[in-house]
Design goal:
The protein is of the alpha+beta class and 153 residues long. The strands form three sheets. It has a six-stranded mixed β-sheet, with helices on both faces. The chain has a two-stranded antiparallel sheet with strand order 4-7. The chain has a two-stranded antiparallel sheet with strand order 9-10. Strand 5 and strand 6 form a beta hairpin. 27% of the residues are buried.
Length: 153
């Protein structure tokens, strides 16, 4: 594993999903810092009949700033199409918990004046657009079970 835990997380997500026999493509991510070059998300996955647009985020602490989610508008655009799920896979490193949060849920938080996505709110959320991704941790990184995630249509 590299010293970049975020990239390691992305690699683990990709292999976990691929191991389920689900098509997953990693989009090119420019690390050169050019603001005009950006992608909608980190991954596009497909399992009939749904296409998934997945942006991975790994954070320390309890909150992820909504202002830092530059992909939100692009993911909201993708959510307009039937048969799509688009959102953020957020790894709260300190808590060893990972949540899937749909883009439209994040947008509602933003419209309601929330500045961040707090793990404490996700833990008690009953909204079906928020989903805990089960994992078994071996020291730092989790081994993810995406079976339930990909069974929800």
């Amino acid at each position: 594993m590299s010293t970049n835990r975020g990239k390691d997380f992305e690699n683990i997500v990709r292999s976990s999903i691929s191991n389920l026999g689900i098509d997953i493509t990693r989009l090119y991510d420019s690390t050169s810092g050019y603001i005009s070059i950006h992608t909608t998300c980190d991954f596009i996955a497909y399992k009939y009949p749904t296409i998934y647009y997945i942006e991975c985020k790994s954070i320390d602490g309890n909150t992820l700033s909504i202002a830092n989610l530059r992909q939100l508008e692009d993911l909201l655009e993708k959510k307009k199409y039937y048969g799509t799920r688009a959102g953020f896979l957020i790894w709260y490193k300190d808590h060893k918990l990972t949540y899937w949060v749909e883009a439209d849920y994040v947008n509602e938080l933003k419209q309601n004046g929330n500045k961040s996505i707090n793990i404490k709110n996700l833990m008690v959320s009953e909204d079906n657009r928020v989903q805990l991704i089960p994992a078994v941790y071996k020291r730092v990184y989790g081994v993810y079970n995406f079976d339930k995630f990909f069974s929800i249509i």
